[in-house]
């Protein structure tokens, strides 16, 4: 028994120093030294940047918590709007943000900021200051979405959006939904713009957001209506060369670029019954698509960019006479769909060459495949891009044809006979 007591005392004595150290560490913990209560913060869901030629104007879409928490939102008289929008100005972007303390009872909190809308004048002036702010400040996140508008960015933030209480979140979800299901536009973050600036082809495509229709939906009373005279929608595509606006592309041209740049996730391709026909009567839901680019140097010194596209999809509309249960007709449909993709890519390539904007990042592809050759042509890449030849090979596979091989018109003809 004595030996057991001695062993217990020895073990206890060995653990005493550890317990004392742990106790001292607990005394050093001071808790959340920089904490802020929620009622001290103004949560910003969206911001806008404008430039009038002299000063920067930053607009903020601030969430009103008591309105968001109210389950009876419906535009009743006296109902408070879910957000408020106000602006501050300064000689720099951060200086404009600093001015918010002069008129806001709370500190602006940008960690939940969903989108930044840049006015066209600000985009032409250059947004290097904005990028610098997001690199330096811990309360700003580089994953925030980026959009551009041809007018003032503030006007976009003032719009009430149906189905969503917070307009900033609605805009973010709008571009995400298009990116995942339409592939005409791709959502772009501050981080992706920075990466684009650092690439061999410093071009980044940013979606445009516009107010379509007449008037403005900037009052809570508009939610009482079943029809809106205008709405927010995605428009053209803006091209940034480094940090400045360099040009615009139409949605049609941007769609062709998506096929070349391998950004097609899921979309619906519309085409006619014969190759080159503009009389659209069929639709292919693209379930999977991959694009590979390869630069080819010919013996006579020409540079060719070969683009190989492989697409798998499902027919979800057919008003043509083809009977898709027959292998011959099914193969013909695949050829027509492939020809349409080729046409879209060719027209987009021609539009980019005309504006001399390497939005496809062909420069990065050449650098990757042949670094030595890229070093030779890099100083005069704009000239080489203007003379670049484009070749494509498109393979379309229709995996499923739906529940009917023939169109409804053809089936009714057969039954009448």
Automatic annotation (TrEMBL):
Membrane disposition: Lipid-anchor
Domain Spore germination GerAC-like C-terminal, first and last residues per copy: 237-402
Domain Spore germination protein N-terminal residue range list: 34-209
One Pfam family this sequence matches: Spore_GerAC
Keywords linked to the UniProt accession: Germination, Lipoprotein, Membrane, Palmitate, Signal
InterPro entries linked to this entry: GerAC_N, Spore_GerAC-like, Spore_GerAC-like_C, Spore_GerAC_C_sf
Gene Ontology biological process terms, A to Z: spore germination
GO cellular component: membrane
Keyword Transmembrane helix: no
Annotated localization: Membrane
Family: Belongs to the GerABKC lipoprotein family.
Protein name according to UniProt: Uncharacterized protein
Organism encoding this protein: Paenibacillus oryzisoli
Lineage of producing organism: Bacteria, Bacillati, Bacillota, Bacilli, Bacillales
């Amino acid at each position: 028994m004595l030996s057991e007591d001695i062993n217990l005392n020895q073990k206890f004595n060995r653990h005493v120093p550890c317990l004392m150290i742990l106790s001292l560490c607990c005394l050093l913990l001071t808790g959340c030294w920089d904490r802020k209560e929620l009622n001290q913060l103004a949560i910003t869901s969206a911001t806008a940047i404008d430039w009038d030629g002299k000063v920067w104007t930053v607009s903020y879409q601030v969430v009103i918590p008591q309105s968001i928490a109210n389950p009876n939102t419906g535009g009743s008289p006296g109902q408070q709007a879910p957000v408020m929008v106000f602006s501050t100005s300064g000689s720099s972007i951060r200086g404009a943000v600093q001015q918010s303390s002069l008129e806001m009872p709370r500190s602006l909190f940008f960690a939940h900021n969903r989108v930044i809308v840049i006015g066209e004048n600000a985009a032409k002036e250059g947004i290097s200051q904005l990028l610098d702010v997001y690199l330096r400040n811990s309360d700003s996140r580089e994953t925030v979405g980026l959009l551009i508008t041809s007018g003032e960015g503030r006007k976009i933030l003032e719009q009430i959006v149906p189905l969503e209480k917070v307009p900033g979140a609605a805009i973010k979800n709008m571009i995400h939904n298009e990116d995942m299901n339409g592939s005409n536009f791709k959502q772009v973050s501050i981080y992706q713009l920075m990466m684009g600036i650092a690439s061999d082809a410093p071009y980044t495509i940013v979606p445009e957001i516009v107010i379509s229709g007449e008037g403005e939906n900037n009052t809570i009373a508009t939610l009482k209506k079943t029809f809106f005279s205008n709405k927010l929608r995605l428009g053209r595509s803006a091209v940034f060369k480094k940090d400045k606006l360099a040009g615009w592309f139409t949605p049609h041209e941007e769609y062709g670029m998506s096929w070349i740049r391998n950004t097609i996730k899921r979309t619906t391709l519309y085409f006619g019954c014969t190759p080159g026909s503009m009389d659209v009567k069929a639709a292919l839901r693209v379930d999977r698509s991959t694009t590979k680019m390869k630069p080819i140097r010919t013996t006579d010194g020409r540079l060719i960019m070969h683009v190989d596209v492989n697409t798998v999809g499902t027919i979800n509309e057919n008003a043509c006479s083809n009977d898709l249960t027959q292998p011959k007709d099914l193969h013909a449909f695949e050829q027509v769909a492939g020809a349409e993709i080729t046409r879209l890519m060719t027209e987009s390539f021609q539009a980019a060459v005309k504006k001399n904007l390497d939005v496809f990042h062909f420069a990065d592809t050449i650098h990757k495949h042949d670094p030595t050759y890229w070093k030779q042509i890099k100083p005069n890449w704009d000239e080489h891009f203007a003379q670049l030849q484009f070749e494509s090979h498109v393979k379309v596979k229709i995996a499923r044809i739906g529940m009917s091989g023939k169109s409804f018109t053809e089936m009714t003809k057969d039954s009448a006979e």
